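Notes taken during the Thursday session

The instructor put the following on the board and asked us to keep it in front of us for the whole hour. The protein is Cell division protein FtsJ. We were told not to look anything up and to reason only from what is written here. First, the residues (108 in total):
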Amino acid sequence: MINVYLDDLRPCPKGFVLAKNIEECIVLLQESNVNILSLDFDLGWNEPTGYDLTKMMVEKKCYAKEIYLHTSDSNGRMKMYQLLYQHKPDDVVLHNGPMPYELLEQYM
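Then, after some discussion, the predicted structure tokens were revealed:
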């Protein structure tokens, strides 16, 4: 089981695998058992966004056990949250914000 951190700029927390774009992230979701997934919205100029990833996750029915939205883009966060909330399976835990420090400490 792995934890995945999707971001093009921020450093990846210890205990997580970094995905710098949605293509890398979707491969990890499809080929690995993902425990925690933390998503950014803005992934670079003219690049697909975290919202594009959430659309792919819904389409492919491919989820992590727990999902956090660490983006600083409040509109992007709300779009991702609303889409995931409407379509995620009942056993997937969705958080409308970043991982708490206490959780990150467990992987340090």
